[in-house]
Amino acid sequence: xxxxxxxxxxxxxxxxxxxxxxxxxxxxxxxxxxxxxxxxxxxxxxxxxxxxxxxxxxxxxxxxxxxxxxxxxxxxxxxxxxxxxxxxxxxxxxxxxxxxxxxxxxxxxxxxxxxxxxxxxxxxxxxxxxxxxxxxxxxxxxxxxxxxxxxxxxxxxxxxxxxxxxxxxxxxxxxxxxxxxxxxxxxxxxxxxxxxxxxxxxxxxxxxxxxxxxxxxxxxxxxxxxxxxxxxxxxxxxxxxxxxxxxxxxxxxxxxxxxxxxxxxxxxxxxxxxxxxxxxxxxxxxxxxxxxxxxxxxxxxxxxxxxxxxxxxxxxxxxxxxxxxxxxxxxxxxxxxxxxxxxxxxxxxxxxxxxxxxxxxxxxxxxxxxxxxxxxxxxxxxxxxxxxxxxxxxxxxxxxxxxxxxxxxxxxxxxxxxxxxxxxxxxxxxxxxxxxxxxxxxxxxx
Length: 446
What we know:
The protein is α+β, with helices and mostly antiparallel strands. Helix content is 40%, strand content 11%.
């Protein structure tokens, strides 16, 4: 869930104007320009570069991009859409927001646009993505830009030098043991990178997959809070201990972007995170580890699988005055045509994959993604948002709880856990405080 190797995310925010002014003011509604708010991941940085000479040139529609780090993006898009401010015509949101925002009447349905564009080929979209981005009426309320699960990435050269074979389906204990053995394998190299940056979609995403497979859950089926339960506590202690003992430098401030940098620059030997990161790791232009990365399924304890399911997707707020222009951009950005453009202009490993079946049948993509394409697709197909743990859940979601309150709850709890990683508090205190917050949320549903 996932940011560019060293760009806007570090600087705070980046305005990229494609043949137009910055994206900070409301567009006029003349259909000649649109404002797009998106997360600063590598795939979004790519589209910001490619739009002017392709989409704008072909359609005459200027696209003003605002690119923000993940946590800032979430705050900004929620603020804009929830308050009906109407500053943006298109925004990147994910599987968590879509059903909640659709229910609130904040989003345009997009099935009619997709159905009316034969070249878009809606039937080609992977079923898990369609399901996660559909509303209660079965219609799409966001179009997937790319889809992902989570898996383990590791430095094959380091493992070979140490005589270590990483299992294809490892347990978390096996990964912790390996992290200890490869810590310091090269000067300045740490054993593993795990997100420590607070945020329900940052630290909260990998941590919750670990909680699930350790037998824990945020809430039972009947909405009893479980944040300081033995299973939740065991998983969190394991996570915090692992990252404190063998994790990246400055772990409490490290999110997706920082871990991507650390792995691509050979500062860590392993990384558990989004499958969508593989394309950046295999990009020889920016990654020192390209061609030397091994991949394994998300580590487990008590469950058969533990990978998350996510899609960064294009949504259109109901407030837009440029629905036609916005829909043209979204259809193009999620199209086979756009994937081909990325492959030909930037390299096939950088294609925003994980959303279309046809992507995995392209010979050029198969070649570029030979090491990670198959395991990515199987991880996406193997994720089970309805039953991600060892007991029934009150809502769907692997790495989140699909209620509006979770955005605030997950962020506050991970702030405390991030402080535990930094050595400023204990896991017990963090989870006891989190339990009270979770109990307050549960009262709304019991």
